[in-house]
Automatic annotation (TrEMBL):
Gene: yfgF
Keywords noted in UniProt: Hydrolase
Record protein name field: Cyclic di-GMP phosphodiesterase YfgF
Alphabetical list of InterPro entries matching this protein: Cyclic-di-GMP_PDE-like (IPR050706), EAL_dom (IPR001633), EAL_sf (IPR035919)
Entry-linked PANTHER family: CYCLIC DI-GMP PHOSPHODIESTERASE PDED-RELATED, CYCLIC DI-GMP PHOSPHODIESTERASE PDEF
Native source species: Roseovarius mucosus
Domain EAL: 26-276
Pfam families membership: EAL (PF00563)
Keyword Hydrolase carried by entry: yes
SMART domains to which the protein is assigned, alphabetical: EAL
Molecular function terms, GO-annotated: cyclic-guanylate-specific phosphodiesterase activity
Gene3D superfamilies tied to this protein: EAL domain
């Protein structure tokens, strides 16, 4: 059988059966995500962010959106997040994350919570309506809500981000610059952003206790945060020796699997159940 005949069923635009199979798989995942979002098959998983020098009590939690397939299993974010970021589905996911985060803050008035958003959702009418409703439902929400924007997303429209932040910070909302060091932030814009929290990307944190390169890079990134009076958070902390090194370095807060994986059953739910059945 000739090569030409073997590939006769591969549509134009695909070099090999493998490239076509990968593309078909990606389309299938995106179809699943679109369907899940349409039916609101999403939930938040919560991960603690702890003070580096007092690790027994979280400073706040991050609520991470999870999208479920038809069987209830989580669709890995890495399989779709880049593709949907530029689509309407990406905006709706931001809205659903905010809706669930605001509901959690209303239900648990002692909680402080960070929710992720894309700079592309600034000005998206449904997202803005959701936020305004949450703020009107509970006047304490502003000071307990943190909005996380990735470095790469913030740099898409830096002037728009700075204006957006200034308006919402006046309502008590804090902002975190996520994945710092992974993107290409212009230092000129960093001076103007006025982020409250700087989250150092995990690639510079993992194994830091024994990695001289990461030690130098994380120290440099942390010094930038300190210069601009931002709370520094090290992401992807997975080992006790790394946690100890980061605390000694002067990092303010730590987040990662060493302190617990993201969970859909956070500790305050069990505490509420205990009180209800006491």
């Amino acid at each position: 059988m000739g090569q030409k005949h073997k590939w006769a069923d591969i549509p134009a635009g695909f070099d090999t059966p493998l490239s076509y199979a990968v593309s078909a798989r990606d389309r299938s995942v995106l179809d699943m995500v679109n369907q899940a979002v349409h039916h609101k098959q999403v939930l938040l998983a919560y991960q603690a962010v702890v003070p580096a020098r007092q690790q027994d009590r979280p400073a706040f939690y991050e609520g991470l959106i999870r999208v479920l397939d038809a069987t209830g299993r989580v669709i890995p974010a890495k399989d779709f997040i880049t593709q949907i970021e530029v689509t309407e589905t990406g905006r709706i996911i931001d809205c659903l994350a905010l809706e669930k985060g605001l509901r959690t803050l209303i239900n648990y008035p002692d909680l402080r919570l960070a929710i992720n958003m894309s700079a592309r959702s600034i000005g998206y009418s449904r997202w803005i309506r959701t936020l305004k409703k949450g703020l009107s439902d509970d006047p304490t929400i502003g000071e307990r809500l943190i909005l996380e924007i990735t470095e790469s997303s913030a740099m898409l429209v830096p002037e728009l981000v700075t204006g957006f932040m200034k308006e919402l910070q006046a309502k008590g909302i804090s902002f975190a610059l996520d994945d710092f060091g992974a993107g290409y932030t212009s230092f000129r814009f960093l001076k103007e952003f006025y982020f409250d929290i700087l989250k150092i990307d995990g690639q510079f944190v993992r194994g830091i206790a024994t990695d001289p390169d990461n030690q130098v890079l994380t120290a440099a990134l942390a010094s930038i945060g300190q210069q601009f009076d931002m709370v520094t958070v090290a992401e992807s902390v997975e080992k006790p020796e790394d946690a100890a090194y980061l605390a000694a370095l002067g990092i303010d807060c730590l987040q990662g699997y060493y302190f617990g994986a993201p969970t859909v059953r956070p500790p305050w739910i069990d505490s509420a159940l205990d009180r209800a059945t006491a």
